[in-house]
Write a structure and sequence with these properties.
Layout: H1 3-20, H2 25-29, H3 31-36, H4 47-68, H5 75-94
Helix pairs in contact: 1-4, 4-5
């Protein structure tokens, strides 16, 4: 995937997160994403940083959906997303 496609995906996931947001609870759910200090508008950030943000957003979205609907997302999917977040963090730190 090209960097501009990653940025578009990043923006889409931010829209999904905002759609799912209810009151101030979203701030607590998104603390990991907020600490990344990256948004889709930060085009100067690397492709790897946007990739990590995408995985973090996917993990957060899956947790929000799972909390709202019982067993709608299997635990192994949420665990896999968490593993991807860790793996991309390691890639960024190694670079």
């Amino acid at each position: 995937m090209y960097k501009d496609e990653m940025i578009q995906m990043h923006q889409f996931l931010v829209y999904v997160l905002k759609y799912l947001a209810e009151d101030d609870q979203i701030r607590n759910d998104c603390s990991e994403y907020i600490t990344l200090k990256i948004s889709p508008h930060h085009i100067h950030k690397t492709k790897a940083e946007h990739k990590r943000a995408i995985f973090v957003l996917c993990k957060i979205i899956s947790e929000i959906i799972a909390d709202r609907e019982d067993n709608s997302i299997p635990d192994n999917v949420r665990n896999s997303l968490a593993d991807l977040v860790t793996r991309t963090e390691n890639e960024i730190n190694a670079a």
